[in-house]
Amino acid sequence: MTAPRYALYYVPPDDSDLYRLGTALLGRCLVTGRSRPRPAAPGLAADELARLTETPAHYGLHATIVAPFETAVDEPALLAAVGRLAAAERPFSLPPLTVRALDGDFLALTLTRSRPELRALEARWVRETAALRRPLEPADIARRGELPARQAANLRRWGYHLVMEDFTFHITLTGPVAPADQARVRSALAEYLGPALGRAALLGALTLVRQESRTAPFIQLRRYTLG
Questions:
Q1: E strand or H helix that includes residue 66
Q2: CB 182 within 8 A of CB 107
Q3: Which residues are paired to 203 by β-bridges?
Q4: CA-CA distance, 73 to 78, in Å (whole number)?
């Protein structure tokens, strides 16, 4: 039996427009684990939307702060350690979000401008939670394939390759989208998510999520208010 995995996410407040619209788009609520009917998004057929959002639905609506890991401590100790870290943080505002393509093929919500406090928070949490994480298995490292030297070193040291200098805050909306379809899909998602875009948000909490096995979806374990 495989061990559960955990991760630390930024999850929009569950009473926000972003969470309401985003979870409907993905068809699953990260907080409850329940399925939700997908909406009628303009310009996207129901079967196309289901196909495009299948992979991000597995992880839930979120932005990763600390990537999935197996813990080196028991769950109560993990919960307590994350609580101590969260208590030492302070909330801050996030710039408005926009829909754009990342890594050339998938669509995500990203910040319209940089936020140094966010980059510092990510680096701090990656470092501070390192002692809570089991080292990656060789198969997990091999699965990433060839990486630039810095990212390969990060993967071995921190358990994920896109950390520190390579961190990009993003909320994944789709799996791979064919280049010929990206402009159409991007426009449809931006229109559907319109009520949640163009406004600042507060990063006032981080969420610890749990995955029972590698094939199971991620579900909220505990939400920690910062400070």
A1: strand 63-69
A2: yes
A3: 92
A4: 6
Answer whether residue 1 shows pLDDT above 70. no
Distance (Å, whole) CA 190 – CA 106: 14
Place of tokens 């505002």: 93
Per residue in 204-220, pLDDT tens? 999 999 999 989 999 99
At 49-85, the pLDDT tens digits run 999 999 999 999 999 999 999 999 999 999 999 999 9
Given a contact cutoff of 8 angstroms between Cβ atoms, the answer to whether 79 and 222 are in contact is yes
Written as six digits, the tokens of 210 are: 């749990």
Q: 214, 4 in Cβ contact below 8 A? A: no
Distance of CA 132 to the CA centre of its chain: 19
For residue 42 the two structure tokens come to: 């303009």
Statement: the pTM of the whole predicted model exceeds 0.85: yes
β-strands 92-94, 201-203 pairing: antiparallel
pLDDT at 88: 97
